[in-house]
Amino acid sequence: MANSDATLPWWVGVDVGGTFTDVIAMHRHTGETRDHKVLTTRGRLEDGVLAALTGLDIPLGEIAEIVHGHTAGINAVLSRQGSSVALLATEGHRDLLDIGRMDREFGPNFYDPTWLRPHQERPVARRRHRYGIRERIGWDGAEVVALDEDQVREVAGRIRDAGIESVAICFLNSYLNQSHEQRAARILREELPGVYIQTSEIYPVTKEHERTVTVALDAYVGPIVTTYLNRLEGALAEAGFGGTLWMMTMNGGVGSVAETSKAPVFQLVSGPVGGVAGSVDLARAAGDRNLLTMDMGGTSTDVAAIRDATTPMTDTWAVEFGLTMTMPVVDVGSVGSGAGSIVHIDSVGTLRVGPESAGSVPGPACYGRGGERPTLTDACVVLGILQPDLFAGGALTLDVEKARAALKTVADPLGMSVEELADGAYRLACSDVAGSIRSISTYRGLDLREFGLLAFGSAGPMIAHQVARELGVDKVVVPQAPGEFSAFGLLTSDLRVSTARSPMTVLSTDGGTDWEGLFTELEEQVASSLGTQGAAKEDIVFERAIFAMYSGQTWDNRLDIGPGEIDDVRVKQLIGQVHDFYQQRYGFSAEELPIIVTTVEVTGRAPRGTLPQHVSHAGEGDPVLRRAAVRLDGVTHESAPVYRRELLPVGERVPGPALIVEDYATTVVHAGSTATQDAAGILRIVTDGKDGHSA
Amino acid sequence: MGVERMLFARPTEERISVTRVPVDATCPECGSTAVARYPVANYIGPRMVTKCQDCFHHLAVDVPADDDHWPPWRPATWGWSGTRAG
Amino acid sequence: MTSTIESAGARNAAEGDAQHLIDLETVRYGLIEVARDMHQALMRSAFSPIVRDINDCTAAIHMRTENGWEMVASWEGCMQHAFTSQHICNFTMDEWDEEHLDDGDVILVNDPWRGAIHCSDINILRPVRINGRAEFVLHSTSHVVDLGGPIPGGFANGVQTAFEEQLRFPPTLLYANDRPVKAAFNYLLENVRVPASVLGDVRALNGCLVIGERRLRELIGKYDHELVRKGAMYGVEMTEAAMRAGIREIPDGDYTAEDVIDEDGVTDESVPLVMTLKKRGDSIEVDYSGTGRQPLGNVGTAWCEATRCIEGIKFIVDPTSAVNSGTLRPIESILPPGSAVCSLPPTSVSNHVDIGGRIVNLVAQAMGKALGDKAIGCDSGTLGMLTLGGVDDRPGHVGNPWASFALAGGGWGATWKGDGLTFCTLAIGNCRTSVQEHVERESPLVVVQHEIMPDSGGAGQHRGGNGAVYTITALSETAITVTGDRTRLGTPGTKGGGRGMPFYGWLIPDFDAKDPASLDVFDLRAAEPLFGMFDDQGIPAPDGGTFGLGTKYASAKVSGIVLKPGQAIRVIIGGGGGWGDPLARPVSDVLDDVLDAMHTRRYAEKAYGVVFADDTTIDEQATQARRAELAAARDAGRWTVPTACALDWRTA
Question: Which of A379, A470, C149, C477 is the most buried (most CB within 10 A)?
């Protein structure tokens, strides 16, 4: 990176989560890593950041780059403590936020007569501050009603009188013609200096509800996020930091503070991004190009499907029901199954694991911190999967009796033994995660036989093999230090800039649309933005995608289209690709119908540099620490080998059933499969008889 | 059989009700003698039920016979054997 | 109302060891996943705007049991379908000669006298055979945009016989061994106005069943047939147990309520509906005896109320369990033949939505008598739906036939917990909004206004959800059908809560988008009333006005309205009923309502007894006095809670 000092040795990743602020650092030359964790300091996040950095024992002046993810924005949204927002909408359409898509939330709320759409209960922009502006752009981008500039000024006066901090401007059809929004924005900037103003320019695509939500949420969190970042930059500078601060964005990469501050809402949720970035990196580097990923933490598991080592992307993201944004975002699903998920009997009388979680306080019963309800972790202890003395590098001895006692409170009413319940809870949790993975993969036309399952988060490896068996996937991949995989992913994230346009035209060779020209134009924009952030032009790789559907439909489908000039031959090929996709995904294709391309999307990525491979060398000694009783598939294996991962030689075969334990994770290997660790320190479990080769 | 249960005139009565025909029986569940037989739509479809009116215990659940006229309408092809095409 | 089942229930239902319970739970959920995948495929690949935008579609899985065909999993789009699906399956499978069934056979049926909701909602059924016998039937249904008949869009308001409605299919073989049956397809496609859209929808409907069979067989392959059967029944029994536990909470008794459909579109006679909900122990009978005879017009229903009423019951006794046969098992319906809920062929039955909505309102009212505080206000009770269609003449689109529906959403009733939901279609739906930006490209429609209608939610301690104002213009000539009810009386509240605003419609013959007054809903100078309760000044007056005074139509069930370019139609769909005494609504909430324009100041003063010191402040002392006055007047029979409706309209 042009603005990154290559002489400074350290790269640091900082992830401010809801409870903890984690930092991880890597020395660019030696590969040494350090990490530290402090409690998040709500209200002044930068204090926690500085404290965590201090805990690394690295002079801030030696840090070349800091990659930063935070929850300032999402916290503000979920707790409704963002800025006061005024919305300027096309007259007659100022209630889009309350309408949502007018439907009800599927699940236990569906038939509940007391249910309210979240925005109606807790608005982001109150109705009294939503203004219908006299203006209209038509379906073809032409002006139908001129912008009433006097009215805009009058509204500005009311906004001023009400002391509102932030304004969102989103008009109908503005994705075709932004002139009205831009003029209104200009007037407001004159009238309301110091007020934050945002328009559809942050992502000018179709779908008026989703676009309005995006602009409104950006107005809601923009001031908070930018203020926080100003303070952080100041605090870092004061503490001697002179390197580059990168912000994580939901499109799976990072950007400079200056660039990303144009659309702070795209930093809203950084949590899953590091995991996806790291997974894509691994897919490229290790040659496992098709990977289903599962990142299991304490409360939930994030899942994604990586095809051909490409970042999986989508264009909508539901913050809450009825508040769906449209934006370039990594395609990650989430299910409420985590290590701390509570095993319980629900109101219908059936056994469930999660989504309620014991968190880390009090945490699972076996932590001995006062938790009395059984969790997935407690089940794993009883099954012998988690060896009590080997947990968390020995820092916390798990109390098996407390785990048993907690499980008994649920086992007894169900007439089961504690072991049977532990079995069942484990299987249910794996089933839930498998279901979530199916919904982002098979249900989108992917053939799981072509994929391996990548597991991380400290809890991922303890269920991964079972999940793989549920899915019919024959290869499980467990990286080094899976508990830190997301953080490392964050560290090594590429610069990414995404942009899109909605041409809404037919995909054909009749010359109506210059597809190559359109993509090239977007690529130039993206390249320009990357350039200002220090990327060299020759380092930039473009990812192209189209959103397509048959004429007459409204649900478009995202298809990566890869590089290569879009000439007539390519167009015909793409048409075929869309038909095939429909056949696989929906069970039919309609070859006689025109295909509409609603949106085209370009992402440019540029590497920030390289870090040394994170490799451990196998220590000396017998990798089998001991043999222990482990219960898998309802059968207790009295003397299953327990391996220490750090002592496992490269290439040594570990047949299941077995446990492979490291400081902060345990990998379960079931019978009928064999695990081996390669020179890069990656563990792979492959079903015996399958070659484990995917893509 | 045939078309006589396909077309009906609109009733002349302003309000329509279902008669529950009393049946001489005692409910085995609660001992009540308030037992009646009448046409219902249960979870599967049209049925004639014999139920205790006090506790709703079912003494019988029967597929309607021809003369139950329940539902009143019936396809002309009722009882015909089928083909590959229906 | 939720209740916790004895966990022994799960264990007993599981019948076997603990591993088995987990297996059953996994299968149960696996079946729901298959239904979900079917529905997602259907919704995302359909062509009719009804399905893809509005979500008027559902997928279900039925299994052969000793009782008949029972639904073991479903995934709603439109709520009502999950309740009616089982009967549709049973009527058809009862009649079909299974001896001739083969793999890949798909049956089309849309006959209301065989359980279908109305002809527009076409159903296709795909039996899944195992060892030579159909063991499962997969069902997909969606509302197609046009199915022939004299009135485009299918709401044949004003006709008296089914012969004048849409194509009606008794069980008809649509695919034989996965190959389209040409005769059936030709008959369908050659008799509809938008064959491309209907063909697209049929493909999507079938495609989703192809996907469903694939997934179901994978599930069976993984867990084996016997276990899948047991898991399916486990799911049904769990839901049944939850419903029965909720039903047990209601005191035994007979609870009667009466409501009305305004008129039938042919005469101006209203159609009375009576429901007696009888509860004994853990089961319910819904007896419609006393209901008016079937109307002349198309607002009666044939069979679907047998099960659709169960939705209203579920809201109250068991909102959270998955819907399957277990939801239906504890409830029996008594449908008087020849009544409006059991109309006899060949009467017209294409408008099911008003009775459908009214039945759910009736359940709320009947159960309200048993529930005390847990009674809920009724929802708007009408879809207030516009059916639109025509031939496009915009440059680049000339000659394209198009059809569309417009659902602006009403309000749901207030409850003990709080205000009602604003912007939601009737309980029988769950309809989504269209993407306006797409609608405007594909058809010559421009939605110029879709906003909250002030003063439309019923007054109460908790306010009914507000309804919507919806104004639409067309760039080329457009034929419109309006299907609405609750034009004479707004929907009722409960426990002293007031009625929501009734349904209103106007034609604006000279709509000028550039005129600032054109979107002022209270400015009636350029608007010609189509239907509603008005006073002699042309002002909406639900209390004390006269239905049809000065209006073009004597009903909101009208077809054949023609909108020329430059004209607009505006409808106001009223909100839900209020809950509790409006004189007890906290003053700060009333102030918020007015500042947010959910209520106007003048209506707030009238209905809530508040006294404003100025436009943004309420005089609390004066309010207290005023409220005491109104309460006394109410006790003396001199004051009632006014129906929701603004007071400031401009007619001159």
Answer: A379
Residue A672 in this model has a pLDDT that exceeds 60: yes
| Residue B32 falls inside a structural domain | yes
What is the average pLDDT value for chain A, to the nearest integer? 92
Check whether A30 has a pLDDT greater than 90.
Answer: no
Q: Does C76 touch chain A (CB under 8 A)?
A: yes
Burial (CB < 10 A; 0-12, 13-18, 19+), residue C226, is exposed
CA–CA gap between residue C63 and residue C336 (Å, rounded): 29
CA-based Rg of chain B, rounded to a whole angstrom?
17
Nearest to A565, CA basis, from A542, A582, A595, A591: A542
Element holding A197 (H helix, E strand)? strand A196-199
∠ at Cα A592 (A588, A598), nearest 5°? Answer: 80
**Residues of chain C positioned with their CB less than 8 A from the CB of B68:** none
Residue A361 has which token pair? 């306080």
Number of domains in chain B: 1
Q: What is the ipTM of this complex?
A: 0.97
| Residues 12-41 of chain A whose Cβ lies under 8 A from any Cβ of chain C | none
Provide the strand spans (E) within C110-206.
Answer: 121-130, 133-143, 172-176, 179-180
The CATH number of whichever domain residue B39 belongs to comes to 2.20.25
Q: In terms of residues, how long is chain C?
A: 652
Q: Does the pLDDT of residue A627 top 90, yes or no?
A: yes
Average pLDDT over every residue of C331-351: 97
Render pLDDT for B20-54 as a digit per residue (tens, 0 to 9). 999 999 999 999 999 999 999 999 999 999 999 99
- For chain C, say whether A116 makes contact (Cβ under 8 Å): yes
- The residue of A347, A348, A416 whose CB has the most chain C CBs within 10 angstroms, and thus the best one to mutate to test that interface, is A348
In a domain, B40, yes or no: yes
Q: Give yes or no for B14 touching C (CB within 8 A).
A: yes
E strand or H helix at C235, and its extent?
Answer: helix C225-248
Residue-range domain boundaries for chain C: 11-242, 375-585, 586-636
B73 CB within 8 Å of a chain C CB: yes
* B25 located within any domain: yes
List Cβ neighbours of A505 (8 Å cut-off, separation of 6 or more).
A512, A513, A596, A597
* Residue A216 · residue A164 · CB < 8 Å: no
CA nearest neighbour of C616 among C593, C637, C636: C593
Question: How far is the C-alpha of C174 from the C-alpha of C192, rounded, in Å?
Answer: 16
Residue C72 DSSP class: E
The confidence score (pLDDT) of residue A575 equals 96
Helices (H) and strands (E) in chain A, counts: 16, 33
End-to-end CA distance of chain C: 51
Q: Give me the residues of C, 233-292, that contact B with CB < 8 A.
A: 272, 274, 278, 280-281, 283, 285, 287, 289-292
For residue A208, the model assigns a pLDDT of 96
- Cα separation of A189 and C525, whole Å? 37
Interchain pair C272, B15: CB under 8 A: yes
DSSP state of A507: -
DSSP A400-435: HHHHHHHHHHHHTTTT--HHHHHHHHHHHHHHHHHH
Q: Which of A93, A270, A261, A254 is nearest to A172 (CA)?
A: A93
- Using CA atoms, how far apart are residues A217 and A77, in angstroms rounded to an integer? 8
Residues whose CB is less than 8 angstroms from the CB of residue A203 and which lie 6 or more positions away in sequence, other chains included: A211, A214, A263, A326, A327, A328, A499, A500
Domain range for B54 is: 20-68
